[in-house]
Amino acid sequence: MILRKLQPGSCTAWLSRVAVRQEQCFFSSVPPQPVPPLIHTLQGYLKALEPLLPPEELNHTRRMVHEFGRRGGLGSTLQEGLEKRARHTKNWISDWWVQKAYLESRQPLPVHSSPAISLPRRDYNGWRNQLLFASKLIAAVLDFKARINTGHLPVEHMRGKPLCMELYHLLFASCRIPGTKHDNIAYHGRSRRSPTHITVVRNYQFFQLEVYNSDGSRMTEGQIHSQLQRIRAQSWKTDKEPMGILTSEHRHTWGQAYNRLLKDKLNKESVGLIETGLFTLCLDSPVMRISDEKYASRKAAQVLHGGGTFSNSGNRWFDKTLQFVVGEDGSWGLLYEQAIAEGPPIATLLNHVLEYCERPDPKRAPLVPLPMPKKLYFHIDREIKRDIEHAKQNLDILINDLDVNVFNFKMFGKDLPKRHQLSPNSFIQVALQLAYYRVHSEVCPSCDIASQRMFRGGRTEYIRSPTNQSLKFVLAFDNRAVSREAKLQMLRAAADAYTALTDQVLEGRGIDHHLLGLKIQAIEDGLSIPKIFMDTAYGLATHWKLRTGQVPSNTDSVMCFGPLVPDGYAICYNPQADHVHFSITSFNCCEATHAETMALTVQNTLCQLQELLEPTV
Questions:
Q1: pLDDT band at 251 (very low <50, low <70, confident <90, very high)
Q2: 273 in a domain, yes or no?
Q3: Which pTM was predicted?
Q4: Assigned domain for 431 exists
Q5: Residue pair 467/500 in contact by the 8 Å Cβ criterion
Q6: 154 and 259 share a domain?
Q7: Are 293 and 405 contacting, i.e. CB atoms less than 8 angstroms apart?
Q8: Is 328 in the same domain as 439?
Q9: How far is Cα 280 from Cα 333, in angstroms, rounded to an integer?
Q10: CATH code (residue 288)
Q11: Counts of helices then strands in the chain (DSSP H, E)
């Protein structure tokens, strides 16, 4: 099997020849990502600090920023370097962003990095229907992959403009590889010996499952189902060590254990088959059910981290780009590693899976013998055994520290703000700002995620939620002396301000990745880190206490991930026409944050905003 490792700084640079030819037609209509004007970014940065800093600190930072941005100064020199880089690279920031945000991060992938998408529970209970649905799901994903390979996946558009499609070519047969200082990405791509198998894991035991026949045709659902039955028959509970737990470790620790693990030839072969597989299927035991009220939260948590070492966490290989989770109780979802993948392409994949799963199986299984799925074995010496035990302890500590609250807000959905000519996303963002203020009596650094795929090789950018307009609104909302008309006007101003920020980001004029680029450019040029990045204001402004994400989907799914900082929240939402799905997470180690309190406050706040827009009396 051909293994190609993409080093940091070039992690999305390599594509197969076929993919490159397909990409060229996409690129012909997708412009390069511009480097925003320096003055625009510095002004935007100061504007973003205004709701967060007292006047004295803001004035200090303002003087520092003005010095950095003066004509002929350090900022101008670094800006010229970025503009030169933009002329000679596919995308001037994406590789740097992936390197800094993901590959150099040493935090564990579960909770801290990899998002989970929990989908509506299927109407079955028991292992027989679990395998039937899993067979359908595998066939659906292979059908989606075939559309990518043949160029039949339609080019996506946003606001009438085509989007870059390169990420789809990297979703399959890719894996993150741990390192002691930084990680790499391995893409086992479209070559003469391209992978034709997936990995299936049940009861902590991994299997190589070929999903293509000898003539190159995809296996039918019936064939896949018979193979999954064989895997189940070989994977009864034993005293096997949960090898997948190792991938949940701190990246430096896992990098060291990985090197020890691969010294053994058997281990190297087994790990290689997991890494080269098109994707991984996790056949989980049922979610531990305490009450119907908490089932949605537990279901999302199980997809996110497996539920702990006594549950399904051993049924994961967290480095793998795509892991589909199917439980015996009808629970299911997708966990993905986002150094390659990100929300919108994943949502497109899942929408295809959901549509495919509603179709009957059109093909009958050919009467040909199938090779037995290959069970993957590991040689576990004393050192590896010790590594697994430490990983189990650390993962259980992390899981017990995470508070997950998933709920469906049923009072209204995105149709309500639309009726009042408000952007649904901007409306929810203002509501989250108000809810946070009500719980903590302050506004905080907050970020939403926006796609940059309207540009060649684009990834994501932050939209900063707190604005002067939202601060004015949250301070006035609970003040009875302020009239309803004034509050309505301030709500509209806050939502419009957020919409304007969104438009700027979608036009390639976001500030955060530009600031990151200026900082890295200084390092690349052998210069000292500019003072504006050593300023306490910059540390405050990037301590994201509120990490948010809208994941619009055609189904009642919800995304879930952990907070970016110990004293923060992560809030995801999926607005439908008449309801909104939310997931809220926080860490129990912080006494100031509480996911359930925030969830109740968000619901109460949304109801009061509905009353503001459409009074009942």
A1: very high
A2: yes
A3: 0.94
A4: yes
A5: no
A6: yes
A7: no
A8: no
A9: 12
A10: 3.30.559.70
A11: 20, 19
Q: How many CB atoms neighbour CB 358 within 10 A?
A: 8
What does the alpha-carbon distance between residue 23 and residue 26 come to, in Å, rounded to a whole number?
A: 5
What total of structural domains would you count in the chain?
2
Mean pLDDT of 89-115: 97
Q: Which residue segment(s) compose the domain that 471 sits in?
A: 410-613
In a domain, 23, yes or no: no
Contact at 8 Å (CB) between 548 and 132? no
Q: How far apart are CA 512 and CA 541, in angstroms?
A: 10
Question: Does residue 583 share a domain with residue 507?
Answer: yes
pLDDT(101) > 80: yes
| Whether residue 436 is found in the same domain as residue 523 | yes
pLDDT of residue 555: 84
Q: Does residue 323 share a domain with residue 262?
A: yes
Strands 546-550 and 569-575: parallel
Give the pLDDT of residue 363: 66
- Of the listed ranges 86-90, 190-194, 373-377, the least confidently predicted one is 190-194
Domain end: 402, 418, 444, which one?
402
Q: Which two tokens stand for residue 105?
A: 């991060």
User: CA-CA distances (angstroms) from residue 220 to 157, 312, 369, 485, 564?
Assistant: 32, 28, 13, 62, 42
CATH assignment of the domain containing 484: 3.30.559.10
Residues 158 and 235 in one domain: yes
Measured at the alpha carbon of residue 246, what is the angle toward residues 242 and 250, in degrees to the nearest 5? 150
Cα dihedral 103, 548, 52, 417 sign? positive
CA 22 to chain centre: 25
Q: How far apart, in whole angstroms, are the C-alpha atoms of residue 194 and residue 187?
A: 10
Question: Are the beta carbons of 466 and 48 closer than 8 angstroms?
Answer: yes
**Residue pLDDT, tens place only, 138-154:** 999 999 999 999 999 99
192 pLDDT above the threshold of 50: yes
pLDDT by residue (tens digit) across 2-53?
Answer: 333 444 444 433 333 444 444 444 444 799 999 999 999 999 999 999 999 9
Which of 6-10, 59-63, 429-433 bottoms out in mean pLDDT, i.e. has the lowest?
Answer: 6-10
3-class secondary structure, 481? coil
- Residue 2: what pLDDT? 32
**pLDDT at position 365:** 65
Mean pLDDT of 264-280: 98
| Three-state DSSP state, 446 | strand
Task: Determine the distance from the C-alpha atom of residue 390 to the mean position of all C-alpha atoms in its chain, rounded to a whole number.
Answer: 26
User: What is the predicted pLDDT for the residue at 292?
Assistant: 72
Q: Which two tokens stand for residue 364?
A: 């009958």
Rounded Cα–Cα distance for residues 431 and 102 (Å): 30
- DSSP states of 91-137 as a string? -TTHHHHHIIIIIT--S-STTTT--EEEEPPPS--SHHHHHHHHHHH
Of 377, 402, 427, which residue constitutes the final position of a domain? 402
Q: d(Cα 380, Cα 596) in Å, to the nearest integer?
A: 42
Torsion-angle region of 597 (φ positive above 0: left; ψ -120 to 50: alpha; else: beta): alpha
Tell me, yes or no, whether 391 and 425 share the same domain. Answer: no
- 41 in any annotated domain: no
Pick from 429, 411, 475, 423: nearest CA to 603: 411
Token digits for 509?
């004029």
> Looking at the structure, do residues 256 and 277 belong to the same domain, yes or no?
yes
